[in-house]
Specification:
With about 450 residues, the chain is α+β, with helices and mostly antiparallel strands. It is built from twelve helices and 19 strands. A six-stranded mixed β-sheet has the order 1-2-6-3-7-18, with helices on both faces. Strands 8, 9, 16 and 17 form a four-stranded mixed β-sheet that branches. Strands 12-14-10-15 form a four-stranded antiparallel β-sheet. β4 and β5 form a beta hairpin.
């Protein structure tokens, strides 16, 4: 068995990332996305290794790819490695290069999906093909899934796979995907590699205010727009109480140690905001996950300036900590009031994964092997991934798409941002770490 990934894999990961970016799989959330060309691209390259990828669709053109690599130990649990093929929209006029050019220049791959997450898609392809060339088989079965629709509801992607094709994931107990094991520069010479071991739940809400329609020149105490605006203002200004989950406590403990700050998140008088102030830049890894949240994002009311409409609607992006849904619901009932109804527009569970597990230890070890100067810590994602849907199958998910990034390149700001890009060296690091972990998994 070769000790290291071959040079061809390092070239291929760059090529695959660039070529996948050139396949425009923009998902605007209205169902018009077509992942099939990207799905066929990865399926063809998997098939070239001798695997038998399966292409599955709930909706025409919304294609998923699943393949299984058989391990050497039939008694071992299987591991799921998954990545999504769709990307969020990008406006070319805002970018330094065209977002779907896949341009490779000055050691950087540019384009929408460079970090979210066609880079990881390409890493998996590169590793699998390198293994085929070297005759390598992992210890446990590895199921590879490339999904559609992650950037919207996942109804055509991981949700469809979990609900209608669970047999493809037989034996899978754990999974890895976005977003973790990237370099977070917390100060001069201080490199942190956060591995995700949890996600807040998704609670996207639709609010509807009812009132009395009328002429815009008349007094109207039952104005639906006013009622909605008042409710939205209360939601936007609400200070959610601190709720520390096991993953977040572990993150705070390890970050405090890394930053040389004394802290005991288990103490009854622990003040999380005081600790966050002392963590400096590293606070960004946890500050969004110490509370539930609800951010107003969309408003829709009226059809003419001099007509008071009978109803008005709004949308709120809610995120819920594990165990926090009861509080979330009660708070929304109170903040919306008697004249505004709310319902879940889209809802998914919160997740937690153990940080004292053998799997987490192996993830940590693989990062430390190739970044010995780095400090690995657990963290909870503020948003969500396809791990939510795959959890329906009893699969515990970790965020692990390794990248070694230079100072000044803000990985988290590149997600859904302008000029999304990834250094070639970061892709090479990712392939080496992913190869090392999957061999040891």
């Amino acid at each position: 068995m070769a000790e290291h990934i071959d040079d061809r894999a390092l070239d291929e990961v760059v090529t695959f990332t660039s070529e996948l970016i050139r396949i425009d799989t923009t998902n605007r959330g209205g169902g018009d996305c077509r992942e099939r060309p990207a799905a066929e691209y990865v399926a063809e390259r998997l098939a070239a290794t001798g695997l038998e990828p399966t292409l599955l669709e709930r909706t025409r053109g919304r294609t998923n790819v699943v393949a299984r690599i058989e391990g050497t130990d039939p008694s071992a649990d299987a591991l799921l490695v998954h990545g999504h093929l769709d990307v969020v929209p990008a406006e070319p006029a805002d970018w330094s290069v065209h977002p779907f050019s896949g341009e490779v220049s000055d050691g950087v791959v540019w384009g929408r999906g460079a970090v979210d997450m066609k880079n990881m898609d390409a890493m998996v392809l590169a590793v699998v093909r390198a293994w085929a060339r070297a005759g390598i088989r992992p210890r446990r079965d590895i199921v590879i899934a490339y999904t559609a629709d992650e950037e919207a509801s996942a109804i055509d992607g991981s949700g469809f796979l979990a609900d209608h094709h669970p047999g493809l994931f037989r034996g899978c107990t754990e999974g890895i995907s976005e977003s973790g094991a990237f370099t977070f520069h917390a100060g001069p010479g201080l490199e942190i590699y956060p591995i995700a071991a949890g996600e807040r739940g998704t609670g996207w809400l639709k609010l509807t205010a009812h009132g009395r329609a009328g002429h815009g020149s008349k007094v109207n105490r039952a104005n639906a727009v006013s009622r909605l605006a008042a409710a939205i203002a209360r939601i936007g200004e609400h200070e959610w109480p601190v709720r520390l989950t096991a993953t977040v406590r572990a993150a705070l403990t390890e970050l405090a140690a890394v930053c040389g700050v004394e802290a005991d998140p288990q103490a009854p008088d622990f003040d999380v905001d005081e600790l966050l102030d002392k963590l400096g830049p590293a606070a960004a890894l946890v500050e969004a996950t110490v509370r539930n949240s609800a951010n107003p994002t969309m408003l829709d009311a009226g059809y003419k300036i001099n007509v008071i409409p009978g109803h008005a609607t709004a949308y709120v992006d809610g995120r819920v900590l594990p165990g926090g849904e009861e509080e979330f619901r009660a708070t929304l009932d109170r903040l919306t009031g008697a004249d505004v109804d709310w319902e879940f527009h889209h809802r998914e569970v919160a997740l937690e994964a153990p940080v004292d597990s053998p799997t987490y230890a192996k993830l940590r070890a693989s990062v430390e092997k190739f970044a010995p100067e780095g400090r690995v810590v657990p963290y909870c994602m503020s948003g969500g991934t396809d791990a939510k849907q795959f959890s329906r199958l009893g699969i515990t998910g970790y965020g692990f798409s390794p990248l070694k990034l230079p100072p000044g390149l803000d990985y988290q700001a590149l997600f859904h941002g302008v000029d999304e890009r990834v250094p070639v060296d970061a892709l090479h690091f990712g392939v080496r770490v992913l190869d090392d972990y999957l061999r040891s998994a």
